[in-house]
Design a protein that fits this description.
This is DUF1677 family protein. By secondary structure, the chain is α+β, with helices and mostly antiparallel strands. The chain is built from 5 helices and 4 strands, in the order ββαββαααα.
């Protein structure tokens, strides 16, 4: 069995000293690597509205697990909840998500008015 000696010396004085077995050192290293992986950030695009966000890989996986493999932003997730609540017939989460995605697709396909001054209000 191997032992690892770790010593922190500041200004000629021993501040911290640690003796650990090789197994414990490997476990600490694996735990540190797992923690760093959990904080790796990635950009992900909402499949409904197209918003791009920077999130951890772990969070992206949780959102995708909740939404049948699709990543949706927090705003769209709230809109899906509203779809569930205001539906006249009882629908599932998948159907509510499909309805919201359809709405977003239609909205994004609209072109802006040629003259926005006259399109906004009626005088």
């Amino acid at each position: 069995m191997y032992m690892i000696f770790k010593r922190l010396i500041i200004g000629g004085e021993i501040v911290e000293e640690e003796v650990v077995s090789m197994e414990v050192a490997e476990q600490k290293q694996a735990a540190t690597a797992a923690m760093l992986k959990a904080t790796d950030l990635a950009f992900v695009k909402c499949e409904c509205c197209g918003l791009t966000e920077e999130c951890t890989e772990e969070y992206i996986k949780r959102v995708r697990d909740r939404n049948s493999g699709r990543w949706i932003c927090g705003l769209c997730a709230e809109a899906v909840k509203d779809e569930l609540l205001r539906s006249e017939k009882r629908i599932g989460n998948e159907e509510a998500l499909n309805q919201h995605m359809s709405f977003c697709k239609k909205f994004r396909s609209l072109s802006p008015p040629e003259n926005p001054e006259f399109a906004c209000c009626c005088f």
